[in-house]
Amino acid sequence: MNKDQVKGATKEVAGKVQESVGRATGSTEQQLKGLEKQVTGNVQKNVGNAKETLKDAAKDQK
């Protein structure tokens, strides 16, 4: 795993927690911030996945 995968997964989890807290407290703003953090984390995780795929493909070419 690379740092983008780890940071992305962490952001996703934090976003889920923030969304849940927002839902429990009735705060639409916190729910939306949590969803935004989840999307950002997912994108970052996918960038990390792409980097790993490219790295593995480069190893296979050698």
Keywords:
62 residues, mainly alpha, 0% strand
- Can you give the helix content as a percent range? over 70%
Helix/sheet category: mainly alpha
Radius of gyration: 15 Å
Q: What string, H for helix and E for strand, traces the elements in order? A: HH
Low-confidence stretches: none
Count up the helices: 2
The averaged pLDDT comes out at: 96
From the spread of the alpha carbons, the general shape counts as rod-shaped
What's the number of structural domains? 1
| End-to-end CA span | 21 Å
Number of strands: 0
What does this structure look like?
The protein has 62 residues and is mainly α. The protein has one domain (3-61). Helix content is 92%, strand content 0%. It contains 2 helices and no strands. It has helices at residues 3-25, 28-61. Helix 1 packs antiparallel against helix 2. The relative contact order is 0.21.
